[in-house]
Amino acid sequence: xxxxxxxxxxxxxxxxxxxxxxxxxxxxxxxxxxxxxxxxxxxxxxxxxxxxxxxxxxxxxxxxxxxxxxxxxxxxxxxxxxxxxxxxxxxxxxxxxxxxxxxxxxxxxxxxxxxxxxxxxxxxxxxxxxxxxxxxxxxxxxxxxxxxxxxxxxxxxxxxxxxxxxxxxxxxxxxxxxxxxxxxxxxxxxxxxxxxxxxxxxxxxxxxxxxxxxxxxxxxxxxxxxxxxxxxxxxxxxxxxxxxxxxxxxx
Length: 251
What we know:
Layout lengths: L4 E9 L2 E6 L2 E7 L1 H11 L4 E5 L11 H10 L4 E4 L5 H9 L4 E4 L1 H5 L2 H10 L4 E10 L2 E6 L4 E6 H11 L3 E6 L11 H10 L4 E4 L5 H9 L5 E4 L1 H4 L5 H10 L7
Parallel strand pairs: 1-4, 1-12, 4-5, 5-6, 6-7, 7-10, 10-11, 11-12
Antiparallel strand pairs: 1-2, 2-3, 7-8, 8-9
């Protein structure tokens, strides 16, 4: 069985790591380069770096910061935010990213998924999906959760996979920053629907929440931010706990 992955997420705004609740009330959480290096030493399996205002500000992801972070770590590194073209991805990969994450741009131009998968391989393409429940339906949101769409989570995830995405990163906006646990039911359905790896995001607050995502949500990786940034759950302790519960974890 493939090892499950623990992935800290660094949301970046104005060159600093930030974290909020339900995509709002952002608070400073530290220097991204220092945090990235710290997580690599602690045993994180990968990192995700999201320039969360790049799309809203209509600018490119900060390639110089990507280069700085890549020099500080020796683990796989996914970068997202403001990516709209093959040339954008070329620049980020050249600066040290291993994978890229697209969200709003993929919804607005689904062909972008095909183009990136063809140019760089599916293993390089992560499609991130931010969704919240509206009238008991999971609706996809864009631009850092600010713009609702008529797209349904499960339909869009399946289309993204069919177009060549190598992984789906699903964030429940309802659970984000709540520390009440992941959206287990939605994750379990996505896991059932998809034949590509699924990353859970939004809601981690205890070790049990990570375990539930793996055992009940059937995910391949768990992503979290505040519990790592503020030292609530150190990665080595989390890995020891998960291993004790029978989850295949990289030491």
